[in-house]
């Protein structure tokens, strides 16, 4: 059974870069069927799709965050990563990694447990 | 961007009753590409329904999804204690992918 696990700092200073990694187990990140996504959840805005990355490296971004988001893959470690630049308090959220199948525009069929990231000085 | 509006905000029912949750889209959801999730406190959302009416793996037939176009419903029959949680709809017919704001199902 495929599992996802987020990791990264729980506290980031304003204007700095948020970096998270999702480790995938029970399946290969190089599978041509899967798209690897990030979703965040805040009390104010609820659930928000951040973006997704395909095994080829092509990325799909939410225009609301596009200019600040970078995603990448590390196939040797079966991991993928998210970087969000110039963070503010509004980026404080629980960040989930989540997978879709057969297209990035699909339902999220597997989720990590989530990690809380707080933006504060 | 397709905006999803869920109603009611909170629904108070008793175990054994039937819950009907609504998700309305600001524009047509292509091919009924709509999913439903249940989220318990401290947990990630769990998929229940995809493509409006198909149950995800392991989801009992007490859960049923319906609707098309801009109006969708999630019906949960014979409510069990584990069903009292927050429910979200998500559309993936348009870009960007968007979620509704959630309906809280609480014990009456």
Task: Give a verbal description of the structure.
- The complex is a heterodimer of chains A (121) and B (108).
- Chain A contains no helices and 11 strands.
- Chain A is mostly beta strands and 121 residues long.
- In chain A, strands 2, 4, 5, 6, 9, 10 and 11 form a 7-stranded mixed β-sheet that branches. A 4-stranded antiparallel β-sheet of chain A has the order 1-3-8-7, with no helix packed on it.
- The termini of chain A are far apart.
- In chain A, 37% of the residues are buried.
- In chain B, the strands form 2 sheets. In chain B, strands 2, 4, 5, 6, 9, 10 and 11 form a 7-stranded mixed β-sheet that branches. Chain B has a 4-stranded antiparallel β-sheet with strand order 1-3-8-7, with no helix packed on it.
- The mean pLDDT of chain B is 97.
- Chain B is mainly β and 108 residues long.
- At the A-B interface, strand 5 and strand 9 of A face strand 5 and strand 10 of B.
What secondary-structure arrangement, pairings included, does this model have?
The complex is a heterodimer of chains A (121) and B (108).
Chain A lengths: L2 E5 L3 E2 L5 E8 L8 E9 L3 E9 L4 E3 L7 E6 L4 E6 L8 E9 L8 E2 L3 E5 L2
Parallel strand pairs in A: 2-11
Antiparallel strand pairs in A: 1-3, 3-8, 4-5, 4-9, 5-6, 7-8, 9-10, 9-11
Chain B lengths: L3 E4 L2 E4 L5 E7 L8 E6 L6 E5 L3 E2 L7 E6 L2 E6 L9 E6 L6 E2 L3 E5 L1
Parallel strand pairs in B: 2-11
Antiparallel strand pairs in B: 1-3, 3-8, 4-5, 4-9, 5-6, 7-8, 9-10, 9-11
């Amino acid at each position: 059974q495929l599992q996802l696990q987020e990791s990264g700092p729980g506290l980031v200073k304003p204007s700095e870069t948020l970096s998270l990694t999702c480790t995938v187990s029970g399946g290969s990140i190089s599978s041509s069927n899967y798209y690897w996504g990030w979703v965040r959840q805040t009390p104010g805005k609820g659930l928000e799709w951040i973006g997704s990355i395909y095994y080829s490296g092509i990325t799909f971004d939410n225009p609301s965050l596009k200019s600040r988001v970078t995603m990448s893959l590390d196939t040797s470690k079966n991991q993928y990563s998210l970087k969000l630049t110039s963070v503010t308090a509004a980026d404080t959220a629980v960040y989930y990694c989540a997978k879709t199948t057969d297209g990035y525009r699909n339902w999220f069929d597997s989720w990590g447990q989530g990690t809380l990231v707080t933006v504060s000085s | 961007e397709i905006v999803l509006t869920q109603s009611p905000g909170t629904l108070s029912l008793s175990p054994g009753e039937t819950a009907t949750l609504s998700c309305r889209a600001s524009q047509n959801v292509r091919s009924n590409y709509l999913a439903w999730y249940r989220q318990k406190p401290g947990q990630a959302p769990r998929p229940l329904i995809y493509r409006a009416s198909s149950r995800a793996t392991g989801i009992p037939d007490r859960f049923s999804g319906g609707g098309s176009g801009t109006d969708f419903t999630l019906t949960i029959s014979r409510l069990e204690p584990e069903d009292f949680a927050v429910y979200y709809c998500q559309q993936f017919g348009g870009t960007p992918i968007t979620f509704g704001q959630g309906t809280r199902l609480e014990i009456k």
